[in-house]
């Protein structure tokens, strides 16, 4: 009888421990999503913050692509649906936050729920606006996570605020040489008119287009600092697209060659080629999050 009581007592203890661990883990997986308006005088842009209900390990600032319409929906249906950065990155965001990280998703002026602005849309102003997010949330250290055109702004941002940035994760980032090899001057570049596809698009968004070449010229000789941990996720779609443009004589340099010439410390800086489209965070969020979590602990 005593032996049976011992077995029952042990079983109850084990069950209790399992239930306790389950609820602890369940609570750690919970997070709070909040929406914030960040003001420059009377103008505001929108920001989403995802914060875990446990101790925060790292802070990631996600910066979106130049995409007023949801490209994935358009490719499948040819219908124009407004681009919502917070939804675009939700798979990757969910994995990062459930592992104890804070994630902030920025919507530039003219994007989604953000307002309009009369501020010029060149890189200096956009970098200042990104840093306004840092000040708003009182961040000391953070990891930049740009996609596409935000890669350009993030490279410019590093030249101003490098001492605050503890890591860089790029998703198919736009590289300066695209614009510089395609057009010999800003005037030549601007001959390619912005195509609004007959849709009503905020002026703040459209005007960003006017400064891409100018920003690229400033970053012509950019290289990453050798003490900055970096992951550069690059899609097979981008690699193939650039190779096709090289064959047509529109560009000269391969993506991977360019990136290899910009990283300076392969012990902490890596290029990860992933099979997929420009929106890797929607199809490869599992492998991306694993790489990110392993490299930024």
Write a structural description:
Strands 1-2-4-3-5-6-7-8 form an eight-stranded mixed β-sheet, sandwiched between helices. With 297 residues, the protein is of the alpha/beta class. The radius of gyration is 22 Å and the shape is globular. The chain is 44% helix and 19% strand. The longest helix is centred in the N-terminal third of the chain and has 27 residues, at 2-28. The chain has a single domain, classed as 3-Layer(aba) Sandwich (Rossmann fold), CATH 3.40.50. The protein is built from 14 helices and eight strands.
What's the number of structural domains? 1
Percentage of residues in DSSP E strands: 15-25%
Query: In the CATH hierarchy, what is the superfamily?
Result: Alpha/Beta hydrolase fold, catalytic domain
Using the alpha-carbon principal axes, give the shape.
globular
Widest sheet: strand ordering: 1-2-4-3-5-6-7-8
Largest sheet: 8 strands, mixed
CATH topology: Rossmann fold
CATH class: Alpha Beta
Q: How many individual helices?
A: 14
Give a topology summary.
Blueprint: H1 2-28, E1 31-40, E2 43-52, E3 59-63, H2 71-77, H3 85-88, H4 90-98, E4 102-107, H5 123-136, E5 142-146, H6 150-161, E6 165-171, H7 176-182, H8 186-189, H9 203-208, H10 212-218, E7 230-235, H11 236-247, H12 255-260, E8 269-274, H13 280-283, H14 285-295
Parallel strand pairs: 3-4, 3-5, 5-6, 6-7, 7-8
Antiparallel strand pairs: 1-2, 2-4
């Amino acid at each position: 009888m005593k032996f049976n009581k011992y077995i029952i007592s042990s079983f109850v203890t084990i069950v209790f421990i399992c239930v306790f661990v389950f609820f602890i883990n369940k609570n750690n997986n919970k997070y709070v999503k909040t929406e914030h308006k960040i003001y420059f005088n009377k103008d505001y842009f929108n920001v989403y913050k995802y914060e875990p209900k446990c101790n925060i390990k790292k802070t990631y600032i996600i910066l979106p692509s130049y995409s007023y319409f949801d490209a994935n929906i358009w490719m499948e249906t040819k219908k124009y649906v407004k681009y919502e950065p917070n939804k675009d990155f939700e798979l990757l965001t969910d994995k990062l936050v459930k592992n104890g990280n804070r994630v902030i998703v920025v919507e530039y002026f003219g994007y989604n729920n953000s307002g309009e602005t009369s501020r010029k849309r060149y890189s200096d102003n956009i970098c200042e606006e990104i840093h306004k997010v840092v000040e708003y949330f009182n961040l000391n250290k953070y990891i930049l996570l740009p996609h596409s055109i935000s890669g350009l702004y993030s490279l410019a941002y590093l030249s101003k605020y490098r001492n605050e940035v503890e890591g860089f994760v790029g998703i198919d980032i736009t590289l300066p040489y695209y614009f510089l090899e395609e057009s010999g001057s800003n005037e030549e570049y601007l001959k390619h008119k912005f195509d609004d596809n007959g849709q009503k698009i905020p002026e703040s968004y459209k005007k960003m287009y006017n400064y891409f070449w100018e920003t690229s010229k400033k970053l012509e000789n950019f290289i990453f600092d050798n003490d900055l941990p970096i992951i550069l996720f690059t899609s097979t779609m981008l690699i193939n697209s650039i190779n096709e443009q090289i064959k047509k004589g529109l560009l000269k340099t391969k993506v991977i060659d360019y990136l290899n010439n910009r990283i300076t410390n392969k012990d902490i800086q890596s290029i990860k080629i992933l099979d997929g489209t420009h929106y890797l965070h929607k199809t490869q969020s599992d492998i991306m999050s694993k790489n990110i979590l392993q490299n930024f602990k």
